[in-house]
Amino acid sequence: MMKAIILGMFLITTIIHGQTSIPTDYFDNPLDIPLILAGDFGELRDNHFHSGLDIKTQQREGIAVYAPADGYVSRIKVAHFGYGKALYILHTNGYTTVYGHLQSYAGPIQEYVKQNQYKNETFEIELFPEANLLPVKKGQLIAYSGNTGGSGGPHLHYEIRDGSSRPMNPMLFGVEIPDTKKPLISSLIAYPIGEDAQIEQSQNPVKLRLILQQDGTYKTENIKAFGKIGFGISTTDQQNGASNKNGVYQIKTTYNGEENFDVLFDKFSFAETRYLNRFIDYTYYKENRERIQKLFRQSHNPLSIIKSDVANGYITVQDSLASNYAIEVLDFKGNVTNIVVPIEGKKQEILQPKTVQETEDYIYADQATSITKGKFSIYIPAESLYEDTYLNIEARSDTLKFHEDNIPIHENIIITADASNYTTADREKLYLGRLNYRGQPYYNTTNIKGDKLSARIRTFGTYVLVSDTTPPKIKSVNFGKGKWISNNKTLKVKIEDSSSGISSYRATINGKFILMEYNYKTDVLTYDFDDDANTETENNLKLIVVDNVGNSATFEATFFRK
User: Fold this and answer.
1) Same domain, yes or no, for 73 and 116?
2) How many domains does the chain have?
3) Quick one: what percent of the chain has pLDDT higher than 70?
4) In angstroms, what CA-CA distances link 379 with 359, 411, 443?
5) Which residues contact 335 (CB under 8 A, 6 or more apart)?
6) Which of these three, 424, 444, 467, is where a domain ends?
7) Could you read off the pLDDT of 95-109 as tens digits, one per residue?
8) Count of CB atoms situated within 10 Å of the CB of 551
9) 5 pLDDT band (50/70/90 cuts)?
10) What pLDDT band is residue 534 in, cutting at 50, 70 and 90?
11) How far apart, in whole angstroms, are the C-alpha atoms of residue 393 and residue 372?
12) What single string gives the DSSP state of each residue in 491-557?
């Protein structure tokens, strides 16, 4: 036993040691087409950093995906959302490659998935094959690109992860993406931080005007400032062959020529990715739909992509002294855009003091807090928020206005509603929904215990108790009841639920389970006749669909096929 433990520790140490030197010629490209990116590594997304490359697939699905190196399939996940159909390959050098939004798997991998889906009678499935079950060779066909899951269009999501399951920038491994364009700069904002800090006689953030110089660099107008201040930038990069605005690779700052702050998008862990909401100016993003990256480290920001932060990236401007703040933005190919901010140290009368909207509910970020408003109880665990703040909370009847979505939530907050004024039967059809911008409720997973309903939430907004008594709607798409459909390759059915949404479904033909793939973007279920689950001329389809509060609908149809 002790020998096995020592051997295991040796292998782990060997893998980690081997990964200190990144292999740049080990992995081939996963696609045999020119690589053009729709998204790159570290790109800023909603609540997370992008963990791979989004490779364009010529606006179509079904492009062959090949194993970039020897290894074996270590994980397979099929889901309606997220990566959709995803494949994970563990390679002999300890790295794992990941492929997301696939249309289908190939060869023995596809057979293995289908067998397990039928065995477990479910489309969504997660599998961890043994190491010797699905080996792959470099250049082997493993899958076909698609548009499954949360994809916004056909492409391949491609990742490389290290031995600790941390996603790394695939370009570090030799993935070549032509790029001769400099990073783009959209906005630059200066933030007064200290109590006596000011910028242009204001204690509020100030947007600086960028002036393009003849040499391609940017310079701002001289700013008058005093005290502890920080800067934030909105920047993107475009590679050759595409108009997509992707993320940059590195941002470095200096103050009076001395290193100040350095952020490098080389790798991160999934445990830290939600701290993106601390890294960006979340309020500004929600109000302007533009992500400002803060070039300073605030409390509760453990991001490992920040490589250097002298004085946490802040600068201290002294009265009557001139200084220079400089920003260097680079893409992976080394194309660079420079910005210079000339600063005149000057303490002046403050004309625009910092604005704070005070309310009766002040939350200390490092303390757990319980609040009751009307029939609603709110539990805010410690560290759910990044900093102490006032919250605007109001309750009226079945509606809870829980601040506005201009402050990020890191850990789940629990909302509980007293539904004792509803009957037991009526409570079973209730859920807590968050109103969208159209004023329509969006389902949150809701638990019912006695006369209490509770939900875990990570977004501020208006929440309401919603009653859903309407079952889902089911409609055939490519066949008619009692018709011959011998030429059909698939069976398609549209399912919809306008309130709480679809929870589950199950379909059979002649009493035998069939696998129907759910595309939530089109509300269509598809069965592939190549599965050959039915062998009769006369076939009876039965489909049961259940929504998130338990309403169910049944669809039955007879069709004929030779």
Assistant:
1) yes
2) 4
3) 96
4) 18, 11, 20
5) 179, 180, 181, 182, 183, 237
6) 467
7) 999 999 999 999 999
8) 19
9) very low
10) low
11) 10
12) EEEEEE-SSS-EEEEEEEETTEEE-EEEETTTTEEEEEGGG-----SEEEEEEEEEETTS-EEEEEE
Q: Give the Cα-Cα-Cα angle 52, 53, 59 (nearest 5 degrees).
A: 140
> Structure tokens of 488?
């059909």
177 DSSP 8-state letter:
-
Both 299 and 401 in a single domain?
no
276 has pLDDT over 70: yes
Determine the Cα–Cα distance for residues 12 and 18; give it in Å rounded to an integer.
Answer: 10
Please tell me whether the overall predicted TM-score, pTM, comes out greater than 0.85 for this model: yes
| Cβ–Cβ < 8 Å for 80, 343 | no
What range defines the domain where residue 496 resides? 473-560
CA distance 91 to 114: 24
- Condensed to tens digits (0 to 9), the pLDDT of residues 191-238 reads 999 899 999 999 999 999 999 999 999 999 999 999 999 999 999 999
- CA pair distance 210, 220, nearest whole angstrom: 5
- Residues 131, 196, single domain; the answer is no
Same domain, 262 and 200: yes
Please give the Cα distance from 441 to 432 (Å, whole number): 8
Q: What is the DSSP string of 265-320?
A: -SB--TTTGGGHHHHB-HHHHHHHS-PPEESS--SS---TTEEEEGGGG-EEEPTT
pLDDT of residue 20: 65
d(CA 418, CA 377): 8
Give the sheet arrangement for strand 512-514, strand by strand. 512-514, 502-509, 538-547, 552-560
Domain boundary, last residue among 467, 484, 515: 467
